Amino acid sequence: MTSRSGFFSSSVGKKYLMGVTGAGLSLFVLAHMLGNMLLFVSPEAYNLYGHTLIHSKFIYFFEAGLIVLFLLHIIYGVTLTLQNRAARGYRTYLTTSGDKAVTFSSKTMIWTGTIVGVFTIIHLLNFKFGAYYEIVYDGVTVRDLQRLMLELFMSPWYVAWYVFAMLTMLFHLWHGVQSAFQSLGFRHPRYTPGIIKFGAVFAWIVGLGFMSQPLYVYFFLN
Ligand code: HEM
User: Domains in the chain, ordered, with CATH?
Assistant: First the structure.
């Protein structure tokens, strides 16, 4: 019988962990993108949503979970990429046929992932640990994140960087979501076309959703 640590150091175990962490992070980015959509409703809706999240009882538990997901994903992603390169040509990905079908996004996972990682650090420094403004709604003082967003998205350079980073996230997810299904055991050829379509639709919805936000602020709110 293989021990649990033995399973997670085997290539099947590593791939499984990539699937779990990738799927968890994908659900997180979807929820984050949908929450941010409140900026299209009103500054108040957006700020009160942020306030509710920050003051939730579960926030520390949730943040700790996200950090663990991110770290495991990065460590195993880098390890698998190095192993795959050492094994020259060995593919762990869901591809339709032969090398020609290995898409641009599957070959660039490590690079798109690295850009998303750098983006995440800058994003946390700018928003979570950035300037702290306050505003009062019905006697309740909340953090004015909308004001901070207007300030940051005033710069065309910042907007361009944000859109570029979200485009790389789109490519990471385009291949990543279908690969996660495969890693988690959905390998039957009957499911393959549906999984490929689902991965593409998911990536475009999340990618375009995130891109729409800085563009809207830059062109319509500033
Ligand atoms: C919110 C951010 C991220 C999301 C939503 C995400 C999502 C995913 C998904 C769904 C997969 C497919 C998992 C599988 O094959 O089973 C994947 C794979 C991968 N990710 Fe990420 N990822 C993110 C950040 C990162 C970061 C920061 C890196 C840093 C290097 C990274 C590197 C990789 C690599 C190298 C693979 C392919 C690993 C392999 O060879 O199977 N990802 N990602």
Answer: 11-88+99-221 (1.20.1300.10)
Start-to-end C-alpha separation, the chain: 62
Q: What percent of the chain has pLDDT over 90?
A: 82
Question: 27, 73, 90, 174: which to mutate for ligand 1, most atoms within 8 A of CB?
Answer: 73
Residue-wise pLDDT for 69-124, tens only, equals 999 999 999 999 998 888 865 455 554 444 444 567 788 999 999 999 999 999 99
Q: Phi/psi zone of residue 134: left (φ > 0), alpha (ψ -120 to 50 degrees), beta?
A: beta
Report the distance separating Cα 172 and Cα 202, nearest Å: 11
pLDDT of residue 119: 98
* Ligand 1 contacts CB of residue 149 (under 6 A): no
Structure tokens at 150: 């207007």
Residue 174: φ, ψ to 5°:
-55, -50
CA 75 / ligand 1 centre spacing (Å): 10
